[in-house]
Amino acid sequence: MTAYDSATQNTTHNAAHAADAYGAPPPVEDVSNLSVGELIGEVSRDLSTLMRQELELAKAEMKTEAAKTGKAVGLLGGAGFGGYMVAMFLSFALWWGLANVMDTGLAALVVAAIWAVIAGALYAVGRTKLRTVHPKPERTVATVKEVPDALKGR
Fold first, then answer.
1. Is there a contact between 26 and 18 (Cβ–Cβ < 8 Å)?
2. To pair with 117 at 20 to 30 A between CA atoms, which of 27, 54, 124, 132?
3. Are 20 and 26 in contact, with CB atoms under 8 Å apart?
């Protein structure tokens, strides 16, 4: 069981005790024999437990996403290097091929201009894709937003 599964299970397990299958609140405990200090201590412990669970869930989500990202980046790095080698040798071949019909310096400029256009297009697409990245742990944010309502008894 991963830390993510554990944190999710703890949050789900505690949520199950907060309401029954029909969404009704749990039975009210008799607190008439408890002092105000004991009640405050109990609320403090509950809040502390809730915050620890939320932090564990956030850590687990971020750790899982970071691991997936690291693997993907490694694979893309290897593919990028392979692609670089292919592009370099094809560029040399194009340069030498164009050198048969025009001056060698002009052929090199033509190849460089082609690569400038390709680089500009890749930059534009990459920048657009990067703007769609959302590094915020969405589930954790959603559950943390529910905390005030839970404290109010809703």
1. yes
2. 132
3. yes
Among 106, 10, 2, which residue's Cα sits nearest to residue 61? 2
For the chain, how many structural domains are there in total?
Answer: 1
- The DSSP result for 89-137, as a single string, is HHHHHHHHHHHTTS-HHHHHHHHHHHHHHHHHHHHHHHHHHHTT---S-
Residues above pLDDT 90, as percent of the chain: 38
Joined tokens for residue 119: 């680089």
List Cβ neighbours of 126 (8 Å cut-off, separation of 6 or more). none
Give residue 130's domain range.
3-152
Buried b (16+ CB within 10 A) or exposed e, 38-63: eeeeeeeeeeeebeebbebbbebbee
Least confident of 21-25, 38-42, 74-78: 21-25
State which amino acid sits at residue 24: A
Burial class (CB in 10 A: 0-12, 13-18, 19+), 95: middle
Q: What is the mean pLDDT of the chain?
A: 82
